[in-house]
Amino acid sequence: AYRELGDTEKAITFYKKILGINSNHTNANYNLGLIFYGLKELKTSKEYLEKTVEIQPNYAFAHYSLGNLQKEFKELKKAKESFQKAIKLRPDFASAQNNLGLVFSNMGDPDSAVKCYEKALELDPKHAGAYNNLGRLYTETGELKKAIESHKAAIKLEPQNIKILNLLGLCYLKKENFDLAKNTCLLYTSDAADEE
After folding, report:
1. Global confidence as pTM
2. CB-side exposure of 153: number of CA atoms within 13 Å?
3. Three-class SS of residue 123?
4. Is 173 helix (H, G, I), strand (E, B) or coil?
5. How far apart are CA 171 and CA 179, in angstroms?
6. Taking the CB of residue 100, how many other CB atoms lie within 10 A of it?
7. I want to staple 94 with a disulfide (CB 3.0 to 4.6 A). Which of 9, 105, 121, 124 is the partner?
8. How far apart are CA 194 and CA 135, in angstroms?
9. What is the spatial distance between Cα 141 and Cα 32, in angstroms, rounded to a whole number?
10. Contact at 8 Å (CB) between 29 and 48?
11. Distant-in-sequence, close-in-space partners of 191: CB < 8 Å, separation ≥ 6
């Protein structure tokens, strides 16, 4: 409850008290992992999440969260395994599919990445991140028409996302469609100014 209310210090104290009584308490370890992740204390977060999956190997969200950390640490093989475990435990886990796609992309396997993004979109047609990542990958492989379609789909879901607008504008620029690039960049700069 403390975590949801934004009182991080009380939440940490609360969960550590629980671990003082039972060091194998799954939820206390998992929640501390998430809290420390939010605080950007990634090594500490990783320790709690590793403990969580050790205690509860069937906890899909713990494998997913651990995979996100491993991805940040550039431990791509481990991240791939964590996301695959999460998906095996929850085959409908669209975000795990999406993040597995990011790992494959970072490992230089664009074909596997596309399959993951497409599976994520099959599971959740409103997953803007999967559309965006698909667009980024298509941009990297020079498939600009597909990249633009993917970024447009992402923008429909998150019209105020300036990062996606920026990527869409860059696609138009690469296609030498300068008017659309300009208009997209104007939206981008307008939204960026609104956030300040």
Report:
1. 0.87
2. 21
3. helix
4. helix
5. 12
6. 29
7. 124
8. 25
9. 39
10. yes
11. 160, 162, 165
**What gap in Å lies between CA 8 and CA 119, rounded to an integer?**
35
Instruction: Say if residue 169's pLDDT is above 90.
Output: no
Could you give the CA distance from residue 185 to residue 196 in angstroms, rounded to a whole number? 17
Query: What are the start-end ranges of the E strands in 11-137?
Result: none
Cβ 53 vs Cβ 24: under 8 Å: no
d(CA 89, CA 94): 12
Please give the pLDDT value at position 6: 62
Residue 31 tokens read as: 């929640």
Confidence of residue 2 (pLDDT cuts 50, 70, 90): very low
Nearby residues of 94 by Cβ (< 8 Å), 6 or more positions away: 119, 120, 121, 123, 124, 127, 130
Q: How long is the chain?
A: 196
Examine the pLDDT at 114 and tell me if it is beyond 70. yes
What's the DSSP call for residue 57?
T
What's the confidence (pLDDT) of residue 187? 62
Q: What is the spatial distance between Cα 175 and Cα 184, in angstroms, rounded to a whole number? A: 13
Q: What is the C-alpha separation between 146 and 148, in angstroms, rounded?
A: 5
Phi-psi region of 177 (alpha: psi -120 to 50; beta: other; left: phi over 0): beta
Element (H or E) spanning 131, and its range?
Answer: helix 128-140
Token duo for residue 10: 């009380």
